[in-house]
Amino acid sequence: MALTGINAYRKGNLKQDVAAADPHRLTLMLMQGALDRIAYAKGAMERKDFAAKSDYISRVTAIIIHLRDTLNMEIGGETAQNMFALYDYMVEKLNEAHVKNDLNMLDEVSSLLTPIRDAWVQIPEDAKQEAFEAQRQNRQAV
């Protein structure tokens, strides 16, 4: 019973965090969520809890696809194209890990996503604001 209350509290806090977050923070939350779910999938795989493994890998895949599909290819140029290809590769590896029950493939995806998340954390505040303003102006122009 107490666990249910804790989970409800966490969900409430997550909703508050999402509602208050700027686009940079939302992306960071997605990346961290993907990394967390990779870890959960690994645990489920080790316990041979295949239903949970499937659920976690599906969630990670959905997050990675969202990150991929929200790349701005016009503004991002070659970097966005490279990120798109990398996210595609991660999705491919997640699918293989799921089918083959391969922990190493989950580790590979985690090792690819972690430096992206770490770099995202290091973006200076003024650069975040500049990117947000450029995105806002781009939307108004359309």
Short note summarizing the structure:
By secondary structure, the chain is mainly α.
Query: What share of the residues does DSSP label as strand, in percent?
Result: under 5%
Q: Report low-confidence residues grouped into runs of 5 or more.
A: none
In the CATH hierarchy, the architecture is Up-down Bundle
How many angstroms does the end-to-end distance come to?
50 Å
Structural class: mainly alpha
Biggest sheet record: none
- Which percent bin holds the helix content? over 70%
CATH superfamily: Flagellar protein FliS
| Shape summary | elongated
How many separate domains?
1
Radius of gyration: 17 Å
Q: Which CATH class applies here?
A: Mainly Alpha
Quick check: average pLDDT? 86
**Helix-strand sequence:** HHHHHH
> How many DSSP E strands?
0
At the third CATH level, what is the topology name?
Four Helix Bundle (Hemerythrin (Met), subunit A)
Q: Helix segment count?
A: 6
Explain how this protein is built.
The termini are far apart. The chain has helices spanning 2-20, 23-47, 50-69, 73-100, 103-121, 125-141. It has 142 residues and is mostly helical. The radius of gyration is 17 Å and the shape is elongated. It has a single domain, classed as Flagellar protein FliS (Four Helix Bundle (Hemerythrin (Met), subunit A), Up-down Bundle).
